[in-house]
Amino acid sequence: MKTNWLKVLATCVVLAVLPGCSEEQPPAAPAGPPLPLSVEEWKQLPIEVKYDEATFDRLRDKDAKLQNDRNWHRFMKEVVVPERKLDIPGIPGA
Fold first, then answer.
1. Hey, CA dihedral for 38, 39, 43, 48, is it positive or negative?
2. Distance between CA atoms of residues 59 and 50, nearest Å
3. Given a cut of 90, is residue 89 above it in pLDDT?
4. pLDDT tens digits, one per residue of 18-75
């Protein structure tokens, strides 16, 4: 009778230690390199990610026209700067 109790106790300990259904698993990391972003997707990003250099690279990768430096600078001036003024109002650099 004592052995049955020990078996039940040992089984409970093992089940409690092993990760399983009762424990929430962290989300899986995305596989592969980040996907290019459209302007609409970019506008929905949180501010702390939206103006990151890596995010700009993803945005630029989505549109072949933005590969040209002149077009990229124009895009920054016409789209990114006005969006930044909406997201982060105030004096730049203050």
1. positive
2. 10
3. no
4. 555 555 666 665 567 789 999 999 999 999 999 999 999 999 999 999 999 999 999 9
Q: Nearest Cα to 84, choosing from 57, 64, 56, 65?
A: 56
State residue 32's pLDDT score: 72
User: Three-state secondary structure along the chain?
Assistant: CHHHHHHHHHHHHHHHHCCCCCCCCCCCCCCCCCCCCCHHHHHHCCHHHHCCHHHHHHHHHHCHHHHCHHHHHHHHHHHHHHHHHHHCCCCCCC
pTM: 0.60
Q: Supply 43's token pair.
A: 């506008």
Nearest Cα to Cα of residue 65 among 78, 84, 81: 78
